[in-house]
Amino acid sequence: MTPNAGIRQNDQRKISCADIREELFHADLTLSNDWVLGLKRLEARPDENQYWRFDFKNARLPANSLFPYVQRFSDRTELIKTVCLVMQRYLLRSTNSKERTNRAKTTLHNTLMVIEFLWMQNALSLSSVVPENFNSLPEKLAKNGWYSALEILERAKNIQPAKMKKLIKARTATENFEGGGAKQFDLQEALGTNCNNVLSFLRKNENKASHKTSKIFSSLPDGHASARTITDKLTIINLLYDIGPENGLSFPPFEKPEATGNKFGRPKSRTANIPVDIAAKIISTAYLWVSEYGSIVAELLEEVSEEVIAGRTLTRKWLGRRLKVFFDRSSKRKEACAVLPFPIELLDFGRLDTKGKNSLREAVLCTMTSCFVVIATMNARRKDEILHRKFGLRVGDLRMLSEDHSLFEVDFYIEKTYRRRVPFYVNQLTADAIKLLERIERAFHRIDISVPADDIVRTGIADRSLFSYRRFSLMKGVGKTRKWYDFQAYAHESDASKFLELALAGSKKIGISAHMFRRMYALVFYYQYENADLLALMYQLGHRNLESTLIYVTDPDSRPELEKISAVMDISTTEMQRARRQHLAIVEEELAEVGFEKHAEDVFNILSGKIYAGGYAKYVRRISTRFSQSVRIDVRSEDAILAAVKQRGHFPRPMQHGQCMAGRTLAIQSARCITKEKDRLQRELAGVEMCSNCIFHLTSPAYLKSMDLDLERQKEEVDLITPDSLIFEQRKREVENLERAINLLKIRFVNTPPLLTRWAMRMAMKKSNKKPSVAYRNQAAAEENILRKSKILDDALIGARESIATYPLSTTLVRHDGMPISYPKTLRQFNLWDEVKGPFFQGLDAMRVVRNSNETLRRYPLHKKHIEIILFSLNELSADRSTVSRRNPFRVLKNKLEESERLRQLLELEPLELNRDFRQLDVQKCSLQQELLQLRQSFQSEILKARAAGPRTSSRRSATISKLQK
Predict the structure, then answer these.
(1) Separation CA 643–CA 638 (nearest Å)
(2) How many CB atoms are located within 10 Å of the residue 610 CB?
(3) Rounded to an integer, what is the distance from CA 355 to the centroid of its chain?
(4) Rounded to whole angstroms, how far apart are CA atoms 660 and 827?
(5) Full-model pTM
(6) Spatial distance between the Cα atoms of 602 and 612, rounded to a whole number of angstroms
(7) What angle do CA 864, 869, 874 make, to 5 degrees?
(8) If we measure between CA atoms, which residue out of 940, 945, 828 comes closest to residue 890?
(9) Which residues does the annotated region (Disordered) include (predicted)?
(10) pLDDT tens digits for range 714-759
């Protein structure tokens, strides 16, 4: 077919814009006479363009076997109709959310890509497409996306090397300033593609290749797209079938897009969670900027805005020179340099050419980042609920309900569920951050009035975003357009990069994304009494101030107080509660996840022998003792114990003196703070004395540090109160109670062995075949006695090895000083042995010994193990001298242990053989089930055939059917 013949065929089936508009009935979708598609932007501000537009004349189709040249998409009007109908189908299915425009753009782009993919296979219309055209598409999308599916590298090789090298060479600063998009457009024209970022893709490939021109286009390493990305693209491609066979496909390209995406794509992986130490550093740094540095930056910015207003009659160039001279001489700038963590040397500059200097813009961006971190963390908000141009925070969203009680409310936009602004109660720290943002916004607003930006349309105060700013320039004084703050920690030029650099100085680099702040909200709640940075922050803010937001999510007993707050808010109570419940449901998911992780961390630490006190630690060890008696080869004991306690409903609830692990367990009757009716816990009565013997209480040394800090703070407050007053006596009593509680915790931690817990000691005693029969009443004296006698036996062992040929006796050895010593043969003899007064049972102080008790060695199994080794070595040494009795108890014990080890190995093999037999039985069972299913299907088919033959024939075969049923 010649090109002219193809053009004639195209003219015959050309469709006009009016024909397409007749089938476009969606109100938010338009098509102009010059082939420009318009989509209404739901996220647009009143001063922004209300429609997103796409010009089909700028789209193109590549060369193929039938058309050896690039064609305009507008010449194939039937394809434009297809794209428009796909967009309409998507809009009908989608909801009216702020993300609709971005998703519609993605839909349009992927539709153009798949049409380009089919065009390269000589499919001039969708009616000629067959399922085989899509066979290779998922695999290519998994490799390098549309770049691989559309063969961008292969098509680039067909262009002259000199022309291609000129198209992809690096742009200069002038080209960037004047608009470097022209090269992107020229490259798309040369390749005949609609792919985005083709220029970056080819430049990346060029950097990986040789410097020789012939090797510029070498193959890139295989990428691997995620399963979610591939599924989304295949779902969009299926819209070509949903619009009907007249304008789309007559078959669904991918009947199961999710299964296909999982087959070819990278498995779904969760974004790495932020560690608690990193979260604490970020929050602490944000608080420092909001409370101290932010006001200094705002004062300097206000001074600069006054200078802009004073020079508003000057030209842009002279205004820039005036600002530079003023800023260099500013006294407030010098004061700010002495306080801020970095000196402010310039008014503004590009971040790519800083050369170690810092600017006022960086200080403003650090302040905005700190405010965003505080608001997002303290209120568990999404990024766009704070930063979005239209739906984010605005001037006037913060209102004070009660100055005496520091009660504030903020109108937050509920993004995912409610899709409207709802007032929420916020704490003092959030209010301070918003007030600081409003102060910065007022300074920039005065600049906007004096030197208007090109993109500013005068709107009401409700449309003034708190996260917009203006740049400064030596050439133009003030930037011509507004800039919008955006938290993008992964971007090369991120507005948050300087703040994160300061906050995470000295820490391991980790990617911080905006969605992690909801997790930080939960980390603050669970680790506020254990992390050092959070402890410092708690006592700077006061625990009550920080927890005021968290309390309504985490404390069911305090939620009725929420109704009193909502009663004074300007919104119906029912609507308020519904919106809040939807928001809290999402927040509680993150809280539950972090809580489960915290629970697992505590359980594993208890089992590993770390220092913990409280009844819950004993409870976990008791559960572990039970599990140790059962044999499970396929499950770790720690995981099994964690699953057991989780199944019983235990869940952490942090308090100042420790954690309450009662959770939703049904055994709350065992709690110390249970009500008389045995129906609920009175956590408001919780304290060290109340919870000390509770089975659900768990505490660690970190909580003791928290209480020490609280004691110092309370003592400082008592010193400021007038003596002999009622408040003084009350605070003094609180200090005394806290001191008594701290002393009680210190005693409990001191009595807990640091490396081997009591649970481990009992486990060691259970595994021992022999138990000592006596022990000292005084445990300190018993430990001293054991250590002293062990030292003597150590010396005896050393001396015996040095003089083995000199002293042939078996029951008498010598120390290193040559003195003979008689040593015990068993643990019981060791307990009764008095090395000072003589050999066994001579001079024994009966008052210091208690019969039938194993307390000493049960509490100190490490010493017991050490003693066993010494006694065993002594007896082995005696055996070498051939004078020891054959009935050595330790040799008998050794034989028994070896025999038990062989039995244990046999027992371990038996479950493995049983599991193998079970698997074989399962295979046989599955094959029998398949045979039964086939018999049932054949039986049903025979019955249907019999019934189809007629009632007379069916009656004749009734006997046969009954036999088949049997």
Answers:
(1) 9
(2) 15
(3) 34
(4) 42
(5) 0.66
(6) 9
(7) 125
(8) 828
(9) 946-966
(10) 888 888 888 877 788 888 888 888 887 877 777 666 555 443 444 4
